[in-house]
Write a structure and sequence with these properties.
heterodimer, A: 196 residues, 37% helix, B: globular
Chain lengths: 196, 444
């Protein structure tokens, strides 16, 4: 049952600590969570788990630690295992820390035909990391992903919510430089879009 | 260019906003539909001959007519916007540029089906489109097109957008329903079909973005007029996502029935093969459908011109034909390695298998490993037969059609390009130039 605030439990009563820091959504994220839960019939609030895990990644450095997943379980009043089994199924959820910019290069079919392998190899060389690794400064993580529905503008990569299409190696340079200069963490559900 | 029923007015400024969309006649179909009886809308869609645009091509009106209507139980409409089939990007294009046509289609379709709560399930990677749709939905609420007593009709509808999180399998309708319920996207055993027991155990219809959007022009021009477009049972217009080695990749709305040759070579569409190369092969309907060599995609085995229709592309069965599928049209030039292409697809299916059914979970991994071995120059002749055997043992032996989708590209590649597999095996790593080219390595 929803309490007066619309949340399933009093968020203030959840007490999960990781590395001496309390795990807690920002007020905006809590208000958005409340709004999302109401999109599903009463008792079916578990449906909100995927959007809420996206928000959790935006709130907690781009990845889902066990403590963050426990927190989401408490918010949704479900067992932690229900969160773990979902988080491990969907590839967009990072179960290990990632760099501020997760560079996701599509390597499927049409992007491969149009030179995705060159893009991956170029980024590996430029950043000095292999696919799946993070740069020592914590700025970039490189990850190849399956088809992002951008085949007509191949090759392409995604950083945060942004699709970078019709890539050339010069474009890759410019994009990575921009991100390095900005130094801002990017997530699929961008932090500035967490609004009730 | 044929009639444009979905991509019309894309050049109009503000077409992605409510006011811009309304200036081009947007939401007039909704007003018309709300004056009709819900069952008459279903009849109109049946008359139009509209078929599911996600890939299966099942008649939409018939799917709607199967929806169970037990009294007192809610019914749901879900729009499948989990567009993930490699080679397909039409839904993203439509939603990004014309979100209101999907919203309007959802309202009309929900009214026809008697659904008072509906969801658009969009893949999580397209989060920026999620926000575009959310804005369009907010505008529609403010204009009185959503919410209580829509335009005084007495019909109530809440429409929500919901995001996935990276799983191709969630495009399968029962996996999508599981996912929307907040679980892992494992497809369900059927029956019961979603029309009887779907979302939260209630009767549910799941339709593709383009299918729902097509309801808007169908109501505007009538089902009968819509059915006049196209050839035979392939009625209306279809969005084709064209990619690969062509001069003009992009999304094209075609009247079903355009010859494949015209689609590839005419300036209106793909504009021919880039860099003056020759056509080698085409995957006509997304990665899951059989690849065809140039001669069979342009003409059927009987020598007739192949048309962009469900029937013509399927002519000859899998021996010499393919499928229209999702309309993900991937073109490959003469330099493309078919073995490497199918290796790439196999990696995709191996990665995306949900793991429920053993033939698919294990078989996709085996196929990927064997193809990797071939690419590595370590293949043996018996590997081709082994690949054939594995794909045969996946097809038709899984809960959902994913197994078939993983098997078909491998089968078709061997069927039509067996000599290329043999070359990989006979040459091995001895032909260094060849080996480096196929593996995209720099010679040093």
């Amino acid at each position: 049952m929803l309490n007066e605030s619309g949340l399933l439990v009093e968020s203030s009563k959840i007490n999960i600590v990781a590395n001496n820091k309390e795990i807690k959504f920002s007020d905006d994220a809590l208000a958005l969570t409340e709004k999302l839960i109401k999109r599903y019939p009463e008792g079916k609030h578990k449906s909100a788990i995927l959007p809420i895990l996206h928000i959790a990644q935006a709130e907690f450095d781009g990845w889902l630690s066990p403590e963050v997943m426990d927190y989401v379980a408490s918010l949704l009043k479900i067992q932690p295992i229900e969160v773990y089994e979902v988080a491990t199924f969907y590839t967009m959820f990072n179960l290990k820390p990632v760099g501020k910019c997760l560079i996701e290069v599509c390597h499927t079919g049409p992007c491969w035909l149009m030179g995705a392998e060159d893009v991956v190899r170029y980024i590996e060389k430029k950043l000095g990391i292999k696919n799946g690794e993070t740069t020592a400064d914590g700025m970039f993580t490189l990850k190849t992903v399956e088809c992002l529905a951008s085949c007509g503008t191949a090759p392409m990569m995604q950083i945060g919510e942004t699709y970078h299409e019709n890539l050339t190696l010069e474009k890759v340079d410019a994009i990575l430089d921009d991100h390095r200069n900005a130094g801002v963490r990017r997530t699929h559900w961008e932090k500035e879009k967490i609004k009730p | 260019m044929g009639r444009q029923l979905l991509l019309d007015n894309l050049d109009k400024p503000g077409i992605n906003t409510l006011s811009g969309y309304q200036q081009t006649g947007g939401y007039e179909s909704l007003k018309k539909a709300l004056q009709m009886k819900p069952e008459d809308i279903v009849t109109e869609v049946q008359k139009s001959g509209l078929r599911g645009r996600g890939g299966a091509g099942f008649p939409t009106g018939m799917k709607w007519s199967f929806l169970a209507k037990p009294p007192g139980e809610p019914r749901y409409l879900i729009c499948n916007a989990d567009e993930s089939e490699p080679g397909t990007f039409k839904d993203r294009y439509l939603m990004q540029h014309k979100p209101h046509i999907l919203v309007e289609g959802m309202i009309i379709s929900s009214f026809a089906l008697g659904a008072n709560t509906s969801y658009i399930y969009i893949r999580g990677e397209m989060m920026y489109v999620y926000h575009i749709l959310q804005k369009a939905i907010d505008e529609a609420y403010a204009a009185g097109y959503l919410g209580k007593n829509i335009l005084g009709s007495g019909f109530d509808l809440d429409l929500h957008v919901h995001c996935g999180a990276g799983a191709y399998i969630c495009g399968e309708e029962t996996a999508l329903i599981e996912s929307l319920e907040g679980k892992r996207g494992n497809p369900r055993i059927k029956p019961p079909f979603p029309a009887v027991k779907g979302l939260w155990g209630c009767p549910t219809v799941v339709n593709n973005v383009e299918t729902i959007a097509a309801v808007v022009p169908i109501i505007r021009i009538t089902g009968e007029e819509y059915a006049k477009i196209g050839v035979g049972k392939s009625t209306g217009t279809k969005l084709i996502s064209a990619s690969g080695h062509i001069n003009k990749p992009g999304v094209y709305e075609i009247e079903l029935g355009v010859p494949v040759e015209e689609f590839i070579y005419s300036e209106q569409y793909c504009g021919g093969i880039r860099n003056g190369k020759k056509l080698k092969a085409v995957v006509a309907g997304g990665s899951s459908v059989p690849v065809l060599p140039a001669e069979l995609i342009l003409k059927t085995a009987n020598g007739e011109a192949r048309l962009m229709t469900y029937e013509s592309l399927a002519d000859g069965g899998f021996a010499t034909g393919t499928m229209l599928g999702s309309g993900g049209f991937i073109v490959m030039d003469e330099d493309t390695s078919i073995v490497k292409n199918v290796w790439n697809f196999s990696r995709f299916y191996h990665h995306e298998s949900c793991g429920q059914c053993s033939p698919c979970r294990e078989g996709t991994g085996w196929m990927y490993k064997i193809l990797s071995r071939l690419l590595d120059g370590k293949g043996e002749t018996k590997d081709i037969d082994l690949l054939w055997d594995i794909q045969r043992k996946i097809e038709g032996k899984t809960i959902c059609p994913f197994g078939d989708a993983a098997a078909w590209p491998v089968a078709a590649s061997i069927r039509h390009f067996r000599n290329e597999f043999e070359q990989y095996i006979s040459k091995g790593k001895s032909d260094v130039k060849h080996y480096y080219r196929i593996n995209n390595l720099q010679e040093s």
